[in-house]
Structure formats: structure tokens, C-alpha cells
Design a protein that fits this description.
348 residues, alpha/beta, 8-stranded mixed sheet, 6-stranded parallel sheet, 20% strand
């Protein structure tokens, strides 16, 4: 198997003017940094926090993490509490740029720099937004899914309305599908609940009992669409192809399982989102003033044919013990003859 790394993380950071921090343990000594998470429900959330926390603690900071419990109002209240506690800086995980703008303005007025992660655009007053390139990732995943059904058939689209990143991902799917008149998209608005998606998918399978009546399921992210995969498998409808974005553990478990209908996930270098956000914040505190409005990390498409390399790149060789999946079993059921391509948007 050939693995092509287009750009290494250190080279990317240098090109963007964001040097990886080799901070002394005294750099943030005595300073408190807040990490405000909208929710902490999956690997994506936890690994952004872990990536940022490691960089900040290595620099001597005291890190305080808040959890909004998926409630945007509570999320903003947590950020206000961090401001009132006089933190030196804040990393915000997830949110809507317009909803965050007022509380970010309060932080700025108090002299507290804010870096957002995975908002999808720069929030006014924030230093930058760090994340995956959702338009690029959706194009990669949508292309893979539509190719798997030869660009024809009924595709059911699960996303959560109003979630900025998910709206972007769906919008790109629509643009890709517009070139293929034999593809018919059916929107299935849902909630951040795999159980809810499973129930919705069960209803769709009941309404469309004939093989081929549903060609594919497009999921805005892995954990969300895991409910649809479970419904497909329980109803022995594995001819239906499923794909999503994030490349978390549940995504790889679905991808690498025997006879899996889950054909692709776009993997993000999620820990790097957190560490890069922390580095930007530290550089701001050190006096740097100019930053790109948006900063992106690597992504790669994982399929049945490159799943082993894709999983190990994301999680390391210990992933098989973590997921209780023997690597030899995966290699036996899915020939690993696919190329792993790491992609990254290049900024001028």
C-alpha cells in the first residue's frame, strides 16, 4: 500500500506563520485559560479539548473546561463565566458565529483573546477560527458516496438544521449532486441523536421495502448516521451505501466491520485542531497581532480499501486494541490495496 502525505503538519504551520510551540513551562505559568465546549459527546469534542489542553498545560497554564451540554445559550453563559473569572484567554469549541459574536465582544472588551474552533467562519472579534475545511471534506465524502452508487438513485440526507458546519456540508452535497440528474436527494432533518436517526431510518425502510428503492444514505457526521447504519443492518438492506464525516472510532468500527454498508468517512486531524488553536492563542498572548482568519488541518478519505492505514494515521497502532478489532480480520475481509491521500487547503 502506498501512503502519500501531501504536507506535514509542521510544514503547514510554518507556511501559515503559526510555528509549533516549544514553550517553556513558565510561559503561561500562573495564568488560567478557558476552553468552552458547546458539548462533549464524541471523539471529535474530546480530542479538540485534549489537543488544546496538552499545549496549554505544557506551557504552564491552568486549564478550565466548560460543557454547554449542546445548548447554545448555556454555551454563551459558560463563556461569560470564564470572562468574569478573568481568564487570560479562551478557546471556544463549536458554535454559531452570529450567536457567539456578542460574548466574544465582551471578552475582547475585557482584554481576553478568543480563538474559536470548528465554527466554520471567523466570529467577529475572535483571533481566528481553526478547524477542518468542511466544504472540502463534504466534496470528498459526497463524491465517494455518489460514486459508490454510480451517480444514480435516491439518496437520503441526514443533518441537523441550523448547525453551521452541517449546513455547509449539506450545501456542498447539493452542489455536487446537481451535476447528476439521476441522483435524487431526500432531506431528512434530525437531531443530534443516533437513536432518533435509527427510528427515522427504520420508517424509511418500511416505506421503501424493495431493494434498490434507497440507494444511499448521506450523514453529516459519523456518530449521527450510526443509527441509520444500525437500521440498515438490522433490516438486511446492506445494498444501501452509507458515508459520513469525522473519522472517529465509531466511524471506523462501522467502516471496517464485516459486510458493512458504511463505505467511506472523511477523517480529520482533530487533535491538531485543538493544539493549533492553543498555539494561536499563545502567540497572541505573546504579542503577535496578525493571523489568518481561518486555519485548517489535514483530512483524508477512509474506505474499505485503505481503512487500516487511515485508522492508524488517525489513532496510531494501538487503535485495534482500543476498538477490540483484530487488524488481521480487517485485512482478511477488506483487501488493503487503496491509496491514502492526505489533503490540506493551501492558503496564500
Amino acid at each position: 500500500m502506498k501512503i502519500l502525505n501531501v504536507i506535514a503538519a509542521a510544514m503547514l504551520s510554518t507556511a501559515l506563520g503559526i510555528m509549533p510551540c516549544s514553550a517553556s513551562a513558565q510561559e503561561l505559568a500562573g495564568k488560567k485559560i478557558g476552553i468552552a465546549a458547546r458539548e462533549i459527546t464524541n471523539d471529535y469534542n474530546r480530542d479538540i479539548i485534549a489537543g488544546a489542553t496538552k499545549v496549554l498545560k505544557d506551557a504552564g497554564a491552568d486549564v478550565v473546561v466548560t460543557d454547554g451540554g449542546s445548548d447554545p445559550r448555556k454555551h454563551n453563559e459558560n463563556i461569560e463565566s470564564l470572562i468574569n473569572s478573568k481568564v487570560a484567554g479562551i478557546v471556544v469549541q463549536l458554535g454559531d458565529a452570529q450567536q457567539l459574536a456578542p460574548v466574544v465582544a465582551k471578552a475582547t472588551a475585557a482584554g481576553i483573546p478568543v480563538v474559536t474552533t470548528s465554527v466554520g467562519s471567523k466570529t467577529e472579534g475572535a483571533i481566528a477560527d481553526v478547524g477542518g475545511d468542511d466544504a472540502l471534506m463534504s466534496a470528498m465524502m459526497s463524491r465517494a458516496l455518489l460514486s459508490s452508487i454510480d451517480y444514480k438513485g435516491d439518496v437520503y440526507v441526514f443533518w441537523v438544521p441550523g448547525a453551521p458546519l452541517l449546513e455547509t456540508r449539506k450545501r456542498i452535497l447539493q452542489a455536487v449532486a446537481a451535476d447528476y440528474p439521476q441522483v435524487k436527494l431526500h432531506e431528512v432533518p434530525t437531531e443530534h441523536s443516533a437513536a432518533k436517526v435509527q427510528t427515522q431510518m427504520e420508517d424509511l425502510l418500511t416505506a421503501n421495502p424493495e431493494p434498490g428503492s434507497i440507494a444511499a444514505v448521506w450523514g453529516a457526521y459519523d456518530l449521527l448516521v450510526s443509527g441509520a447504519v444500525e437500521a440498515v443492518r438490522r433490516n438486511s438492506r446492506n445494498e444501501i451505501k452509507v458515508a459520513a464525516i469525522d473519522g472517529d472510532r465509531v466511524g471506523f468500527q462501522m467502516l471496517l466491520d464485516e459486510d458493512s454498508p458504511f463505505v467511506a468517512t472523511v477523517v480529520q486531524d482533530v487533535p491538531r485542531i485543538g493544539s493549533l488553536a492553543a498555539e494561536v492563542l499563545m502567540q497572541k498572548l505573546a504579542g503577535k497581532s496578525e493571523f489568518p482568519s481561518t486555519l485548517f488541518t489535514d483530512a483524508w478519505l477512509a474506505t474499505h480499501a485503505n481503512g487500516v492505514a487511515a485508522a492508524e494515521k488517525r489513532w496510531g497502532p494501538a487503535v485495534w486494541d482500543d476498538m477490540s478489532i483484530p487488524r488481521a480480520d480487517v485485512e482478511g475481509r477488506w483487501p488493503q490495496d487503496g491509496q491514502l491521500l492526505v489533503v490540506h487547503p493551501i492558503l496564500p
